[in-house]
Each structure stands twice: as structure tokens, then as C-alpha cells.
Specification:
Catalase HpII,  Chain A, domain 1, ten-stranded antiparallel β-sheet, catalase activity, 12 helices, hydrogen peroxide, Catalase_sf, EC 1.11.1.6, heme binding, alpha+beta, globular
Length: 486
């Protein structure tokens, strides 16, 4: 091996003669514009940061593998799930949702759980959270929801009035905010939390038979949360606590792992199930659809370069492979566009050519040019169909499996507005101590809200889910449950 030292160069490959002193007119200057190395360094420095993600800005990532442990080929023709023992390389990014790139890890917030499987049929992205549900069920409300979680445009401060005003006017959020204010609302580490696809997806087997499916990643490390006071202290002492924990764990060979399970619903069941199976604010009962083991995910390698691998990692729930398709879930339908479009804005139209996002199989399409493009193919015919019998050509066998649609085109809600049954069930499942902590978290979060109107509206939702719950929140806030609700 050569011991020759690497010579510093400019971006164009020219050697740099002096990296300590700029070229000046004499000892006192001024600096000469001919110092192209200086100009290149300053210009590149000004452009070293890409826009942070609008949501999920702060996060950590790791490489690993997914190994199939159960044959589910009767449900899906997805090749990476085709045989027991098959391993697929993958990359995962964990994140907080509302905070900025420099925010603290140990805040009460959902955690992103985004997995990229580098399959032989293309990249499959499963972009979920550490909760099985979400705050809203229609993507048209997503920008408004996130505006309430971000900073007030006038004060540039976090705004609990906006948070609770929106939630109290959006009762479908009750189920998710109950998870958020419970013991799982502040994970102890990224390793000690479960992950969920949250949405319903469609699996299709090699016979063309379709099934509805939900994903559950269950932590082999167990699920642990942080006490709110401890979390607040850590946020001040070490705001990168979760990022550091994941890196150090893998670095010392303590590789975190998750078992992947799915709930599978026969296609026809969706038409009669007691909850709309495509409403992401609802779960499927595990008594009705027990979890079935699929495989095991292990994280065993840290990134070599955070920016190249974690910051530029681009996930989209629209990245499917044959055998896995979208469902009519309205929130999912909006995300199919929104995520890829965010990456096109943030890191460019050719973001999928970056090494961390590049599929392991060959990419063939007629997308040409754009910023940072470096592979435009070798042919001159970049359209299809054409008279020159050139490739690539469409593959009819890869068309989606059809599903029925109903009704008239209109702006409509889901059929059911029962936002209280599952949230109330979740409350009643909690132990007495868990309920106490939940009440304390809600009361502490709601006290700063300056309008009793907003508090009372939210108390109504708690009361409708469980009268005891509503009464306890009202008492904690020094208010009474509105008479018209009892």
C-alpha cells in the first residue's frame, strides 16, 4: 500500500498550493479575484446546507439488513419476501416530527420510522411512525396541521393555542394525541420504540389475489419511555441524546433489531369491517386480525457521512415494488405525491441518483437532464412508443391490481365520524398510574392555552371518549365539563 499523502485539490482536480493564505496584492492586500481556490471555498461554504425537511428535520440513520423468517408468498409476490432466509440490505431513518434540525431529541413528539429496502425489483420505502395511527385522515388538512406544530409566524414561538385550537376542531386527532401524551410519547431511545406503517396497504400475490395489510415493527429491545421531567433535563444537557445513543450502540456492536409482523385482512372484509380500514386514525383489532410474523430487521452499520447518507436520504411511500400497492387511504394518497415532491424541491429532481437513494437494480426510463444529472443513457430516442424498437418498454405484468371505487366525485369525508370509541378504549386499557401520567401530561400541555373556549371544546372530546377522562381533565384545568355534553 502506498504511503504517499493525498494532495489537496480544487473541485476540478487542480492541486492547491496554499490552503492557509489567500492571494493578495502585497502583504496587506487587498485580495485578488484570481484566487479561484478561495472563491470556490467561500461559494461552496455558502451552499453547504440544503433546506431542512419541513417535517422530520432532526433524525439519525443506520444501515442494516432485513431477513425473512416466515413464508407469506401466498399473500404477496414481492420478491424480497419470497423465501425464508432471504436477506435484503436496508437503511432506516428515525426522526422527530415538529422540531427543527437543531431541536432536542427528547421532546414529546411522534417519531418517524422510515425504512428503505434495496430490493432486486427496486427500492421499497415503508415510511411510518412509532404510532399505529395519525392525527388526521385526509391530506388536505396536513399543511394546516403542521402549521400549528411549527412556529407562530408573528412571534416565531411555539404556539400551544394553535396546537389545541386545531386539535379541538379536529376530533379525529383524539386517538393519536392520546398515544402522544401517554407513556410512549417520549421514547427512551430510538432503539426502544416500535415502528408502524400506520396506513393500510395492499398486497397482491402471483395469482392476482389482493389483501389489505398493516405493518408492525416490534422492538426486540422492548418499549421504554422517558419521564417528562427527565426528558426535559436531557433536552438541556444533551439535545442529541437519541442520535448519540443509536450511533454508540451500533459502534460497540450492540445491534438493535425489530421483528416485522403484519395484520392481513381479506380483500372483501374491508367492505363490512366495523371501522373503516383505510382511516389512518383507526387501528384494526388484533383479535380480528392477529399479527403474523414476516421477518427480522437488524441495524449493524453506522453511516460514514451523515450528510450524504442521512440528510440526503429520500423516502417516499410511493416507492413500491411488484406485489405491494397503495390503498384508498386518503392520507396515504396525498403522501404519494407530497414526499417525492419535497425531495425534488429540497435536493433536486435527480435525488434518486444519489448513492443512498440509488436502487441496486438497473434504472431504465426516459427522464433526462435536470440539475446534478450525470447519466442520461446512451441512446438518442428518449420517448415511447417509438418506431425504432428501442428500450425501455412497459411491462404489462407489472400493472397494479384493480380495486373498486364507489359513489360520485365530490369533496367528501369518511363514512364514519366515530372518533371516540378507539380513543376511549385506549384510555381504559391503561393502568391507574398510566392514566395519572396521561392526565398530568394533557393538563400541563393545555394550561397555557389562553382561551377557555378551546379547552372546553377539547374537554368535550375527552368526555365523549370516557366520562371519567373528561371530568379529570376539566378538574385539572379548573373548569367543568359543559352541561350540554353530559
Amino acid at each position: 500500500m502506498s504511503n504517499e499523502k493525498k494532495r489537496m485539490t480544487t473541485a476540478s482536480g487542480a492541486p492547491v498550493g496554499d490552503n492557509q493564505n489567500s492571494i493578495t496584492a502585497g502583504n496587506r492586500g487587498p485580495t485578488l479575484i484570481q484566487d479561484v481556490h478561495l472563491l470556490e471555498k467561500l461559494a461552496h461554504f455558502n451552499r453547504e446546507r440544503v433546506p431542512e425537511r419541513v417535517v422530520h428535520a432532526k433524525g439519525a440513520g443506520a444501515h442494516g439488513y432485513f431477513e425473512v423468517t416466515n413464508d407469506l408468498s401466498k399473500y404477496t409476490k414481492a420478491d424480497f419476501l419470497s423465501e425464508v432466509g432471504k436477506r435484503t440490505p436496508m437503511f432506516i431513518r428515525f426522526s422527530t416530527v415538529a422540531g427543527e434540525l437543531g431541536s432536542a431529541d427528547t421532546v414529546r413528539d411522534p417519531r418517524g420510522f422510515a425504512v428503505k429496502f434495496y430490493t432486486e425489483e427496486g427500492n421499497y420505502d415503508l415510511v411510518g411512525n412509532n404510532t399505529p395511527i395519525f392525527f388526521i385522515r385526509d391530506a388536505i388538512k396536513f399543511p394546516d396541521f403542521i402549521h400549528t406544530q411549527k412556529r407562530n409566524p408573528k412571534t416565531h414561538l411555539k404556539d400551544k393555542n394553535a396546537v389545541w385550537d386545531f386539535w379541538s376542531l379536529s376530533p379525529e386527532s383524539l386517538h393519536q394525541i392520546t398515544y402522544l401524551h401517554g407513556d410512549r410519547g417520549i421514547p427512551a431511545t430510538f432503539r426502544h420504540m416500535n415502528g408502524y406503517g400506520s396506513h393500510t396497504f395492499k398486497w397482491v400475490n402471483d395469482k392476482g389475489e389482493a389483501f389489505w395489510v398493516k405493518y408492525h415493527f416490534i422492538s426486540e429491545q422492548g418499549v421504554k419511555g422517558l419521564d417528562e421531567d427527565v426528558a426535559g433535563q436531557i433536552a438541556g444537557d444533551n439535545p442529541d441524546y437519541h442520535v448519540e445513543d443509536l450511533y454508540n450502540s451500533i459502534d460497540k456492536g450492540d445491534f438493535p433489531a425489530w421483528k416485522l409482523y403484519v395484520q392481513i385482512m381479506p380483500y372483501e372484509d374491508a367492505k363490512t369491517y366495523r371501522f373503516d380500514p383505510f382511516d389512518v386514525t383507526k387501528v384494526w383489532s388484533q383479535k380480528d386480525y392477529p399479527r403474523i410474523e414476516v421477518g427480522r430487521m437488524v441495524l449493524d452499520r453506522n453511516p460514514e457521512n451523515y450528510f450524504a447518507e442521512v440528510e440526503q436520504a429520500a423516502f417516499s411511500p410511493g416507492n413500491f415494488v411488484p406485489g405491494i400497492e397503495a390503498s384508498p387511504d386518503k392520507m396515504l394518497q396525498g403522501r404519494l405525491f407530497g414526499y417525492s415532491d419535497a425531495h425534488r424541491y429540497r435536493i433536486g429532481a435527480n435525488h434518486q441518483e444519489l448513492p443512498i437513494n440509488r436502487p441496486v437494480n438497473e434504472v431504465n426510463n426516459n427522464q433526462f437532464d435536470g440539475q446534478m444529472r450525470y447519466s442520461n443513457g446512451s441512446g438518442s430516442v428518449n420517448y415511447e412508443p417509438n418506431s425504432y424498437d428501442t428500450e425501455p418498454k412497459e411491462d404489462p405484468a407489472s400493472k397494479i391490481s384493480p380495486f373498486e371505487v364507489y359513489g360520485e366525485a365530490d369533496s367528501v369525508s369518511y363514512d364514519s365520524d366515530d372518533h371516540y370509541t378507539q380513543a376511549g378504549d385506549l384510555y381504559r386499557l391503561m393502568s391507574a398510574d398510566e392514566k395519572d401520567r396521561l392526565i398530568d401530561a394533557f393538563v400541563g400541555h393545555m394550561k397555557p392555552v389562553d382561551k377557555d373556549e378551546i379547552k372546553l371544546r377539547q374537554i368535550e372530546h375527552f368526555y365523549k371518549a370516557d366520562p371519567e377522562w373528561g371530568e379529570r381533565i376539566a378538574k385539572g384545568l379548573g373548569l367543568s365539563v359543559p352541561e350540554g355534553v353530559k
